[in-house]
Structure formats: C-alpha cells, structure tokens
Amino acid sequence: MITIGEPKIKRNGKLTRLSCEIEINNEIKTLWLDVDNKYGGYLVKDRSDAFLIAMLPVAMRNNKDIVCLSPVSEELLHNIRVHLIPTLSKYGKGFYKTRIQAEVKRKPVHNAGAVGTGMSRGIDSMHVLNEYLDCDYPGMRVSHLMINDVGAFDIAGYNEGGRDNQKIKRECIKESIELADELDLPYIITSSNLSEEFSPKYGYDHIYCNMFPVFALQKLFKIFYYGSSGFDYSQFSLEECDRHECGNYELLLDYVLSTSELKIIPEGGEKTFFEKVQDILHYAPAQKHLHVCITDSKNCGKCTKCMRTMLAIDSLDRLDYFSQVFDTEYYYKNKARYMAYLEKACAGGNKQLMPVREQFDKRKMLTESLPEVYKDGLILPEKINTSSLIIKNLNDSSILMKKLSTDEFSAVGCAKIMTAILALESGNTQMDIELPFGVIEHTNVATLYDLINILMITQNNSVANIIAEAVGGSVEDFVSMMNKKMYILGAEHTKFVSPTGFEVGNITTAEDTCKLVEYALNNQHFCQIFRNKSYIINRDGMQMRVSTLNPLLRERSKIYLDNCLGVKYGVRGNLSNVVTVFEHQGNIYLVILLGVKEGKGTQNRFIDTYNFVQSIVSSK
After folding, report:
1. E-only strand ranges, 157-299
2. pLDDT tens digits for 43-68?
3. CA 504 to CA 255: how far, in whole Å?
4. Distance of CA 338 to the CA centre of its chain
5. Domain 371-617 has CATH 3.40.50.80
6. Does 419 have pLDDT greater than 80?
7. Residue 153 — pLDDT band, cuts 50, 70, 90?
8. Which of 5, 311, 392, 418 is most buried (most C-beta within 10 Å)?
C-alpha cells in the first residue's frame, strides 16, 4: 500500500516547497518539489494530483494500491482509473492493476493561462520552440520554459566513470537559463527528491516524472507541450508496455493526463526523430544550445544520442552549422566509426536511424547521379562531386545541364556577388572608407571601389562587412537590402543573414544564383571587376597588390581556364560553391556549382568546374 498524505506548502528563503508524506510498507518519506518564490503562489495543495502521477508508476511496478488522503481532480482520477491502469496492466505483465482510493474533487483548478514546455535543449524541446514560439495560433504560443530536476540527471551515464552529476546538472541548468534569457522567456526551475527517495525508472517513466512539477503548478498552466520522444504516431504500442519507455504509449498518457483546464499536448508526435532534426537545422538557438548528451554537460560526441544526432545532421549536409555544440573535427576524423555504428544499428532494426542511412545513400546518389538535363553531345566528367548545378548559354538562354537546381545549399560565394553589385549600384564607389587595422596592409583608408575589387578577388569576410556598413548604414540594414533585391529578381528560395554568406542561415539554390549572376552581368563595372585576376590599390604614394590564388585563373596551373570572364567561390565546412563565367566560340557560358563535396586538402570545386568547362569546350 502507498498512502499519499495531504500536500503542504512552506516558504524557505527564496524557495517555496510543496510536499507531502508518502507511506510505503510502513515507512514514511516526504516527497517535495521546490520552486522560486515567484511561482510559489501557483502551487496546488488542495488536491493530490501531482503526487498521484509521480507515485503511479512506482505503485504499478511494485504491486501496490494507492490511498490519497486529499482529493484528486475528477477528470484526472477518472482517466487514470478507467483508461490508463486497466490498459497498461492488460498489455504489460509487469504492471499491477493498481486500485486508487481517493475523494473526487469536482471543482476545476483555474489557471493563469500560461503555455509551457520543458527545456532540456534536446531535439524534442528545440523542436517545440521552433514550432510554437511564434506559431499561427496566438493562444498556443509558448510563454514559459520549465527546467526540471526530477530524475534526468540521475540516469546511469551522468554517474559513470567518476563523473560529477551534480556539476553536470548545474552546468546544464545554467545553459538552459542562458537560452531562456536569449529568447526573452520567463523560466521556472524546479527541483525534487523524487528520483533520490523513490527511485522511479526515469528512462521508462520520464513522462510521469516530468508531469509531477507541471501538475504541482496547475494554477499556472493551461497548455503544456511535452516534446515527443523521437517516435511518431506510427510507433504507438502497448505491447509489453512495462518493458519499454513510456514514449511508446505517449498518446494514451497525454490523453489521460489532460483535463478541461490543463491540456497536455504531445508536440512533434506526427514526426520521426529524423524529420524533427530536419526542422531545426536552420534554427539558430538549436545551433548554439542543442544538448543531446547522456554523459556530460557538453555533447561528448561518443554516446548513442550524440552519435545518432551527429549522423542525422551530417546526412543532411549541415553538421558544420552545429560546430558550437559538437566537436565536428573529431567526427570527421572518426567518421568511419560513426558510419559503422549506423550500419550496425540499422541492421539491428533501429527505426530512428534507418532514415539517416537512407539520406546518406541519397546524398551519395546526388554526387554520383547524372544531371536531369544535359545537352546532346556533351561528355560528362568521369566523376561529379557537385550536388546541384546549372550550366547555361547566356547568348540564347539555353540550359546545357541542370541537376537538383532547386535544392537549398549554403550561400557562400553568392552572397558576396550580391554585396558587390549593391555596392556598385550605390553610386558612391569613390568614397573613402576608414578601415580597421590590418584589413589592408600599409593603409587604413580605401575607396569603396577598392574594397569591391578585394571582395571579388579574395574571400575576405571583413571587407564584406565593411562594405555593408558603408552602403547600408549597418550590416542589418544592408542584409535587408540584399533580401529585397533577391525578391525583386524572383529568387524566392534565397535568404541572406549576412553579407559574407558564411554564417549559418545563408541559403540559396542554383536557380536563384543564376538569376542573381545574370542580373549582375548586366553591370559593366561588375563585369570588369569579376574578370580581374589582380588589383592594385594606390594610396599615399604606395601600391598594394591583391592577387587571386584561384588555380582556374593562374596561367601556370594545370587547370587554368583560358577565356575565363570571372570566378567566385566560397567554402563552408566540407561543401563549396563556384560561380564561373567563360567565353567559347563567341558564346558566353555561366557555370554554377553548389554543394561540391570537399575532402581534406581537396579542391574539388575547381576540378569539377574545369571538367564541366572542358565538357562544353570539347562538345560537338
């Protein structure tokens, strides 16, 4: 028998504690939950709802009945008695059909209308933020974050190998607070002795544990999003439910725990783990704060959760976007080990990772597959490292070759072309601009025209930002100009977040890049700058020369392109982009390559460009 006593509330310094005595086998322990005094007034003491939820899996796993000395909300008690316990005990042999003795409380708990979610910073909780911080339904937007200490930090991984799980807990909570502050959202930190004193199986019963503080604060919440556990609704199963984590029957749990005043919503349940990873690829808070590790406060890169997440992100060509939270260098050096883990997991029937392997296979096909469009008579290069491309004859606007031209890739290279053309169109190319120390050797002043030339010849990100401030007044305003121009050009799938194109969130497609370059080539000043292999800055009687290092433009290079009218490229992580314009037999050709796969020390961007140009030059 488990007897749940009457809840009590007591303030202690900066914290308010909700507690009650729990008697199990004639032994009395106190179960408590602490919150900041700011939220103490939202704690509920006139009913046992929160404590019943916390103790229910303990009772069912240990063949215990429950007696509540305080009432339980009518809907909740009905749902647990009529739906949950009979169902779980029917399909889970290890679940006892617990009987609950409690008075019914018919009066609902009125709340403050808050919409909450837990903030563990994992894939699921990041997905909730991405979907519901600014959704189409104002009354369902997340208004509060909960940072709960109810057992997650007591799982085996945080205690193994001499790890200090208390230190890990403090560091994790600190970063969750930083994220809440960045999002300008109020946060509620709860702590409890639930795990320490009553030892629920958190890995199996995490929903019960995390609903304990939610129902303790029923006066606050009208909606609470519980990030689905990586399973979509197709994985709903009650078979052997005692032996599997409760995420398998989350649909049932969320229904049972919802009342007319407090709705528990399983966010993301319609999507798989892989689909949710896809959704948060471009979500800046995730790129900065994502934490999936089950062994440390920083992502270790070696535990199962870290490995599956890194593999999923890498399969989508976006791992470098998450370099702030993962050791991407270690991953690339040990990629064979990660891939071996992936194969073994899929061979064992791991449904979460099967889409990841399929995506890797698809990526391999991207670079090995033939273009969807290519002109008769072209001889394709033996190997293509490029994922997306367009080759166009600008004289007659015919497409010679096209491959996945609407797929999105990083906008490195493309963004600097946009930066250059906007600067040229400003009409102030001869104005002097003061430079930070070291941007250009021997001078701290240059004209805007000087900087445009440097930008196009080199990969200098500092120059791009200096141009943006000079032309737009601020980098932010200049980026708005960039996006407005792309909209005018009909480039609907491009988004710039910086003038460099290097930062996360700069996205474009081959078709959009084609529209931009064709527009830029109508500007004779741009055409002149684009074809420059070097440029001399004259300042105060001194000359400073800037020269290209691009092997396509250097005459002694084995892949030198004669009659080239300009090349602009960019590299981000293991992918690169190249824009090339060249002349052949009176025709002007535009070659755009995006998502070129690079290895350590490779220059596939230039090799692919050279090979494609040779295909055109040698065609009949």
Report:
1. 187-192, 221-227, 263-267
2. 999 999 999 999 999 999 999 999 99
3. 39
4. 20
5. no
6. yes
7. confident
8. 418
In Å, what is the CA distance from 262 to each residue of 19, 94, 254, 487, 597? 21, 30, 11, 43, 50
On the CB side of 609, how many CA atoms lie within 13 Å of its CA?
33
CB 484 within 8 A of CB 399: no
Angle at 198 between CA 62 and CA 126, to 5 degrees: 105
Asked whether 128 and 146 are in contact (CB, 8 A), the reply is no
Instruction: Kindly tell me the burial class for residue 159, based on how many C-beta atoms sit within 10 Å of its own C-beta (0-12, 13-18, 19 or more).
Output: middle
Instruction: Please name the residues in contact with 514: beta carbons below 8 A apart, sequence gap of 6 or more.
Output: 390, 392, 405, 590, 592
Helix and strand totals (H; E) in the chain = 21, 25
46 phi and psi angles, rounded to 5 deg: -90, 10
Strands 564-572 and 575-584: antiparallel
User: Where do the structural domains in the chain lie, given as residue ranges?
Assistant: 2-267, 281-365, 371-617
Token pair in block for residue 153: 């930090």
Alpha-carbon torsion (81, 41, 209, 304), positive or negative: positive
Q: Which two tokens stand for residue 310?
A: 């890194």
The whole-angstrom separation of Cα 304 and Cα 310 is 10
Residue of 534, 575, 528 whose CA lies nearest to 413: 575
The type of residue at 78 is H
CB 330 within 8 A of CB 338: no
Query: Please, which residues have CB within 8 angstroms of residue 598's CB and are 6 or more apart in sequence?
Result: 385, 571, 574, 575, 576, 604, 605
Report the b/e string of 406-433 with b at 16+ CB within 10 A. Answer: ebbbbbbbbbbbbbbbbbbbeeebeeeb
- For 381, phi and psi rounded to 5 degrees? -55, 150
- Which residues, at least 6 apart from 106, have a Cβ–Cβ distance to it below 8 Å? 74
Rounded to an integer, what distance in angstroms lies between the CA atom of residue 243 and that of residue 105? 33
Long-range pairs of 556-563 with CB within 8 A, sequence gap ≥ 24:
559/606, 559/607, 559/610, 561/609, 561/610, 561/613
Is the pTM higher than 0.70? no
Q: Encoding tokens for residue 152? A: 């997650």
- The dihedrals phi and psi of 265, each to the nearest 5 degrees, come to -110, 125
Q: Locate tokens 């009518």: which residue? A: 74
Q: What are phi and psi for residue 264, nearest 5 degrees?
A: -100, 115
Round to whole Å and give the CA distance between 345 and 351. 9
